[in-house]
């Protein structure tokens, strides 16, 4: 149920405990309003002190992820964090697995570069600061369904481009959480239609010229810091999008 706590990690132990709990909250392992492990359970399973577990739980309460019920324990708030449109808080890989589909990807680009002006603006970076640029062809059950291009501030995840992105089911959000303690908490989404370039149309197995849906998302962490900018081109038939709306 838990990923191991590493005492060699530069992240403080309590932040690693927070990350493990957030993984359960937003990875579908704890339902909305569900009970989270107690201090004692965290101590026993993760091998941390009670003070460390308590600090992690208190911060998650302060940040709105959990609510404390005296005498009962800690519970997921179940509020708007779980309702962000287009699965902003869950990766392509995690979403596919949750729907019993087989995710896949083919790396098109993984490199470090100076952020272009629009990228720097979206990520609130100064001109000339560097980012990791990660571009992948996304697959569902072996079929190409989207082209995703991510930019992550290099200072937040310095060796991200060095990972093997051809490993099956490697999730960017899981890497950001587990390696760097970066957990998406909210964000912004913009939808628009565009004409795919001949290269992109060929990757998606569309006849050019082809109209595709473009989704641009910026994910923020719990302190409002941009941690990822994503631009995704969606195959209009193989990967339609759905927005759930309340009544």
Describe the protein's architecture and organization.
- The structure is a single chain.
- With 247 residues, the chain is of the alpha+beta class.
- Helices cover 26% and strands 29% of the residues.
- The protein has 2 domains: 13-79, Orthogonal Bundle (Arc Repressor Mutant, subunit A); 84-234, Chorismate lyase (3-Layer(aba) Sandwich), CATH 3.40.1410.
- The strands form 2 sheets. Strands 3-4-5-8-7-6 form a 6-stranded antiparallel sheet.
- Strand 4 and strand 5 (143-153) form a beta hairpin.
- Helix 1 (13-26) crosses helix 3 and helix 2 (39-46) crosses helix 3.
CATH superfamily label of the largest domain:
Chorismate lyase-like
Uncertain spans = 79-85
Assembly state (oligomeric): single chain
CATH architecture of the largest domain: 3-Layer(aba) Sandwich
Strand order of the largest sheet: 3-4-5-8-7-6
Radius of gyration: 19 Å
Order of helices and strands: HHHEEHEHEEHEHEE
Predict the CATH topology of the largest domain. Answer: Chorismate lyase
Shape from CA axes?
globular
Mean pLDDT across every amino acid position: 83
Keywords: DNA-binding, Transcription, Transcription regulation
Pfam family, one: GntR
Domain HTH gntR-type: 11-79
GO molecular function, one term: DNA-binding transcription factor activity
């Amino acid at each position: 149920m838990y990923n191991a706590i590493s005492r060699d990690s530069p992240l403080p132990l309590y932040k690693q405990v927070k990350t493990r709990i957030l993984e359960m909250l937003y990875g579908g392992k704890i339902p909305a309003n569900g009970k989270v492990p107690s201090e004692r359970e965290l101590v026993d399973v993760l091998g941390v002190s009670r003070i460390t577990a308590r600090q992690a739980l208190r911060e998650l309460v302060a940040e709105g992820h959990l609510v404390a019920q005296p005498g009962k324990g800690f519970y997921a708030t179940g509020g708007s964090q779980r309702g962000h449109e287009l699965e902003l808080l869950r990766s392509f890989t995690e979403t596919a697995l949750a729907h019993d589909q087989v995710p896949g990807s083919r790396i098109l680009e993984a490199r470090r570069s100076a952020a272009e002006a629009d990228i720097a603006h979206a990520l609130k970076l100064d001109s000339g600061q560097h980012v990791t640029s990660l571009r992948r062809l996304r697959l569902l059950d072996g079929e190409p369904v989207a082209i995703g291009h991510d930019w992550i501030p290099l200072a937040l995840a310095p060796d991200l481009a060095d990972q093997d992105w051809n490993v099956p089911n490697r999730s960017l959000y899981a890497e950001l959480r587990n390696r760097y303690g970066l957990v998406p908490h909210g964000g912004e989404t913009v939808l628009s239609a565009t004409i795919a370039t001949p290269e992109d149309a060929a990757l998606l197995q569309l006849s050019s010229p082809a109209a595709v849906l473009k989704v641009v998302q910026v994910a923020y962490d719990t302190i409002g810091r941009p941690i990822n900018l994503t631009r995704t081109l969606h195959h209009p038939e193989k990967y339609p999008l759905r927005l759930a709306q309340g009544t």
